[in-house]
Design goal:
With 410 residues, the chain is α/β, with parallel strands linked by helices. The protein is built from 14 helices and 15 strands. The strands form four sheets. It has a seven-stranded mixed β-sheet with strand order 2-10-9-8-7-3-4, with helices on both faces. A four-stranded antiparallel β-sheet has the order 11-12-15-14, with helices on one face. Strand 11 and strand 12 form a beta hairpin. It is globular, with a radius of gyration of 21 Å. The structure holds pyridoxal-5'-phosphate. Pyridoxal-5'-phosphate binds next to helix 5. The site of pyridoxal-5'-phosphate has 13 residues, from helix 5.
Length: 410
């Protein structure tokens, strides 16, 4: 590990944790791993600058030991030809969905993909035709707004409402936005960036709208392993009673939860044969084979990483609470509780107004914290919002929060 050059170097714990520490804490989320100067999109954005990157959604943690072991075994084979699924890998996925989400799927429903963004784009190509419309609620992860346009579809959208300190659906606005040409509803569950894990009632309402308006629902559930509220369990949209499954495309991956997005492995679950056929047809010629290392990692992640996953959620909960405590104590800033994901959606509009209309992302970047700009998540209406990724060691997070405090107090 090369030493940190940034101003928060002094806060780094020893890179060699004590024996007692490692006995008590079998998984180490505390020791920073230096990702600078390598292939990290997140860190390279600020190469040579004293900015702590808390933007793009990957975590600064090592992948689980069982995933690393599976990757070493696979690399040891030394042959990297085209890959595809094998029975124990499919068993690992099917068993994981049954155990974690009480969702029983047929193995034929699986379609392997190199990523969720690919999956969203394929869904837009597979459903409707050029000129038809695709619904998304805002604010939203930007590819939900670009994927429809990539395939000549129109975006129709309605904003989520911030009511009683919580982000919620405005179902009246949602139905009003859906027009006669709308064929596809893109759902983000749990939601990036507002961090809501939608309730059964809310999912039921989405299913009812889809039924009334004859829509296919493509549910991006990439963050489903990151429910931070103790006792809450992720419920796939397609696992509801009724006909939700028939009109659903569920996109999932181990990538966010087990911090392996660079390995490019994801899958769609599509129960309806005709819809799955259309989806596969839309993939023809443009979607490559899945990365063989990603497939090996996926099997290990879903089969052998339960204890690591529980420890990660515990750590992220602590980080979430730290972010919330600081943000909600600062003048002109606030955030709602993050129920799921490692992303905090921060309302800094009042702060920006008091400072003569500064851009929030640039204001914090100048203070040494690299956040995502709210406007990327649905345009001008989100000017003054920023998204903060708290999937990092506490020493890094605390340094960023100290900078935030100082910048706001200045
Ligand atoms: C909701 C959502 N979908 C998809 C992705 C990206 O998925 P992939 O890297 O598999 O394309 C992200 C990454 O942040 C995300 O938050």
């Amino acid at each position: 590990m090369t030493p940190f050059r940034h101003g928060y170097r002094g806060l780094c714990p020893s890179p060699l944790p004590s024996v007692a520490h490692s006995l008590l804490k079998p998984f180490d989320f505390d020791t920073p791993i230096d990702r600078r100067g390598g292939d990290s999109v997140k860190w390279n954005k600020y190469a040579g600058r004293d900015v702590i990157p808390l933007w793009v959604a990957d975590m600064d943690f090592a992948a689980p030991p069982a995933v690393l072991a599976a990757l070493r075994r696979r690399v040891g084979q030394a042959v990297f030809g085209y890959g595809g699924e094998w029975p124990p890998l499919v068993d690992a996925v099917v068993d994981h969905l049954a155990q974690a989400y009480r969702w029983t799927i047929d193995r034929q429903w699986l379609v392997w993909l190199p990523g969720l963004v690919t999956g969203l784009n394929v869904a837009c190509r597979a459903v409707g035709k050029p000129g038809s419309a695709v619904f998304s609620s805002t604010p939203i992860y930007p590819p939900f707004l670009s994927a429809p346009q990539n395939s000549g579809r129109r975006v129709v959208s309605a904003p989520l409402a911030h009511l009683g300190g919580r982000w919620q659906w405005d179902f009246a606005a949602t139905e009003a936005a859906i027009d006669a040409d709308t064929r596809l509803f893109l759902l983000c569950h749990p939601h990036n960036p507002v961090g809501r894990a939608w309730s059964d009632e809310e999912l039921g309402e989405v299913a009812a709208i889809a039924g009334r308006r004859d829509l296919v629902v493509c549910s991006d559930e990439i963050h489903c392993g990151l429910i931070l509220e103790p006792g809450r369990r992720h419920r796939p949209f397609a696992a509801q009673h009724g006909e939700a499954a028939r009109r659903s495309i569920t996109l999932m991956a181990p990538s966010k939860t087990f911090n392996i997005p660079g390995l490019g492995c994801a899958f769609a679950v599509i129960p309806d044969d005709a819809l799955r056929g259309d989806y596969r047809a839309a993939m023809q010629g443009i979607v490559p084979h899945v990365n063989v290392l990603g497939l090996a990692a996926t099997e290990a992640a879903y089969r052998d990483c339960g204890a690591w996953h529980a420890a990660l959620l515990d750590y992220l909960r602590g980080n979430r609470d730290r972010v919330e405590a600081v943000v909600n104590s600062l003048p002109g800033m606030s955030m709602a509780r993050v129920e799921a994901t490692y992303l905090a959606w921060i309302d800094a509009r009042e702060l920006c107004r008091r400072r003569g209309g500064v851009n929030a992302q640039r204001f914090f970047e100048a203070a040494g914290i690299g956040l995502s700009d709210g406007e990327d998540f649905g345009g001008e209406q989100y000017r003054g919002f920023v998204r903060l990724n708290f999937g990092c060691p506490r020493v890094t997070l605390d340094a960023a929060l100290a900078r935030m405090r100082a910048a706001v107090a200045d």
